[in-house]
């Protein structure tokens, strides 16, 4: 061996910086996204592009439309080419931009969610989008507290999820049991899809879109021969039969769309418990989604029973967890633990997730005065509506049948008020405060008492006259607060003292001394 070779052999081998250290390597988005992103940007700019090509001959603004499309495509391509990210020991860093550079950094100790979504545009090349969020759900700061890596491989997305969320995985991997299946979708659950009424929203959106375009284009849909045939058929049919046929057709259409939406959203649904103490939810047929919920951030669970689903014996289960956006629905926020399924199965999932089922605890009935409040509010609202319609009819602005129809709704309003009272209830199980309320959208929430940030007691003028109080349990998770509606004042104070012992002791002691 020569002296040079000996010297070289004594030099330490250079190793690349490790992931998760301060000198962690940079990663780039997958270049296969370049085959998709320009097409998507052109589709987004299609109205402007078609307007420029079809109606801009010889006009100067034609070039404005073409330039706008070119800039959109260039921005998308440069985003894919210049975006890079890395995970250091303390934060996730992201840089992008060619002409306008952007830099973002999110501290790792603030990361609460890594939502992995694979839409059809991603699945063409086995890619996914990883949304790294801090869990803040105020609308104004949502995008500032969320980092989106919209073109990474599925394996890379899963690696990011494990690295950022499973901080205890390496320590527990050797002794941890394998992944445990808690719930999986059952084909028989499709019978609950029509009772979600999700298809009704699709029909409403489609009708609104068609009407908008017809109005903008000054086009009358009745000019279609098919529409004229249908309208003529109903004109020759008795009114009651036309209404029945229209309702039946709408019901069939809504049911089919609801079933289709259920299949697209919840097919391949699996809820599992991973070795690192994390609940993992996977679902979706065409667009797949993967959400992780750390059990350390669980503050409880809620069983939701919208009226149609409740009549069919079904329910949905939602996690009350810190760091998950509630959004317009649990489905969008990522907190869904079970899609529409049998009510008994929802209780089983709650028991598996929490270790017990506080939602099944027998609830305490609320005072009879709460029933009077619900009946009076429900019936009075319909009577005020009928009075307003009657006034318009008396002035000649409306016919008589609207206010007469409103009076017909009075018994139904009373029935809803009675059902809302039947839905009221609360309980205390030692670890959980349980509250239930609602009729059209009934929810039974079980919130851990050690997760409460306080207790709020409030009452309106009419509640004071009735001797009732609303107890609010604030928690930094889920909806943010869970009310116990219209309970007696003494019961509210006792419940608050049991949920957070000592918090109201000075007030209760003062009341006893004055007594």
Write a compact overview of the structure shown.
43% of the residues lie in helices and 24% in strands. It is built from 19 helices and 20 strands. It has helices at 3-10, 37-44, 46-55, 61-82, 120-123, 154-165, 169-172, 198-216, 225-235, 239-266, 307-311, 330-333, 343-354, 368-394, 401-408, 410-423, 461-466, 489-499, 505-514; strands spanning 27-28, 84-87, 91-96, 102-107, 113-118, 127-133, 146-153, 180-184, 270-274, 278-283, 288-294, 298-306, 314-321, 336-342, 425-428, 432-437, 441-448, 456-458, 468-474, 481-488.
Structure, described:
The protein is α+β, with helices and mostly antiparallel strands. The chain has helices at residues 3-10, 37-44, 46-55, 61-82, 120-123, 154-165, 169-172, 198-216, 225-235, 239-266, 307-311, 330-333, 343-354, 368-394, 401-408, 410-423, 461-466, 489-499, 505-514; strands spanning 27-28, 84-87, 91-96, 102-107, 113-118, 127-133, 146-153, 180-184, 270-274, 278-283, 288-294, 298-306, 314-321, 336-342, 425-428, 432-437, 441-448, 456-458, 468-474, 481-488. The strands form four sheets. The chain has a seven-stranded antiparallel β-sheet, with helices on both faces. A six-stranded antiparallel β-sheet has the order 14-13-12-17-16-15, with helices on both faces. β15 (425-428) and β16 (432-437) form a beta hairpin. α3 packs antiparallel against α4 (61-82) and α14 runs antiparallel to α15. The N and C termini lie far apart (99 Å).
């Amino acid at each position: 061996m020569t002296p040079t070779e000996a010297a070289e052999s004594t030099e330490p081998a250079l190793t690349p910086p490790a992931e998760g250290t301060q000198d962690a390597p940079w990663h780039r988005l997958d270049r296969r996204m370049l085959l998709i992103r320009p097409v998507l940007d052109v589709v987004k700019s299609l109205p402007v592009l078609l307007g420029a090509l079809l109606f801009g001959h010889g006009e100067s603004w034609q070039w404005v439309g073409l330039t706008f499309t070119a800039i959109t495509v260039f921005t998308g391509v440069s985003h894919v080419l210049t975006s890079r990210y890395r995970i250091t020991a303390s934060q996730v860093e992201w840089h992008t931009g060619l002409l306008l550079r952007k830099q973002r950094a999110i501290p790792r100790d603030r990361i609460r969610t890594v939502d992995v979504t694979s839409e059809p545009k991603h699945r063409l090349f086995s890619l996914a989008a990883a949304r790294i969020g801090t869990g803040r759900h105020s609308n104004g700061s949502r995008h500032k507290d969320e980092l989106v890596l919209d073109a990474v491989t599925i394996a890379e997305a899963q690696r990011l999820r494990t690295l950022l969320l499973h901080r205890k995985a390496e320590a527990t991997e050797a002794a941890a049991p394998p992944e445990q299946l808690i719930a999986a979708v059952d084909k028989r659950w499709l019978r609950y899809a029509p009772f979600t009424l999700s298809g009704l929203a699709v029909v409403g959106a489609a009708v609104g879109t068609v009407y908008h375009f017809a109005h903008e284009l000054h086009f009358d849909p009745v000019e279609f021969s098919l529409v004229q045939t249908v309208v003529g058929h109903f004109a020759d049919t008795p009114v009651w039969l036309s209404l029945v046929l229209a309702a039946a057709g709408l019901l069939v259409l809504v049911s089919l769309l609801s079933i289709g939406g259920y299949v697209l959203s919840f097919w391949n649904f699996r809820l599992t418990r991973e070795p690192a103490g994390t609940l993992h939810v996977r679902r979706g047929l065409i667009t797949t989604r993967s959400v992780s919920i750390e059990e350390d951030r669980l503050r409880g669970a809620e069983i939701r029973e919208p009226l149609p689903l409740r009549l069919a014996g079904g329910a949905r289960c939602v996690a009350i967890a810190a760091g998950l956006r509630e959004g317009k629905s649990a489905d969008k926020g990522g907190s869904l633990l079970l899609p529409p399924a049998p009510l008994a199965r929802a209780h089983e999932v709650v028991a598996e997730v929490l270790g017990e089922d506080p939602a099944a605890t027998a609830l305490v009935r609320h005072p009879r005065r709460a029933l009077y409040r619900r009946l009076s509010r429900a019936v009075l609202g319909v009577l005020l509506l009928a009075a307003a319609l009657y006034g318009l009819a008396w002035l000649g602005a409306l016919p008589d049948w609207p206010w007469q129809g409103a009076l017909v709704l009075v018994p139904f309003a009373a029935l809803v008020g009675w059902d809302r009272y039947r839905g009221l209830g609360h309980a205390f199980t030692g670890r959980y405060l349980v509250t239930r309320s609602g009729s059209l959208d009934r929810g039974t929430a079980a919130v851990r008492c050690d997760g409460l940030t306080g207790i709020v007691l409030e009452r309106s003028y009419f509640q004071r006259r009735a001797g009732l109080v609303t107890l609010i349990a604030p928690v930094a998770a889920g909806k943010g607060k869970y009310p116990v509606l219209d309970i007696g004042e003494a019961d509210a104070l006792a419940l608050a003292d049991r949920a957070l012992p000592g918090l109201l002791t000075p007030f209760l002691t003062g009341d006893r001394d004055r007594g």
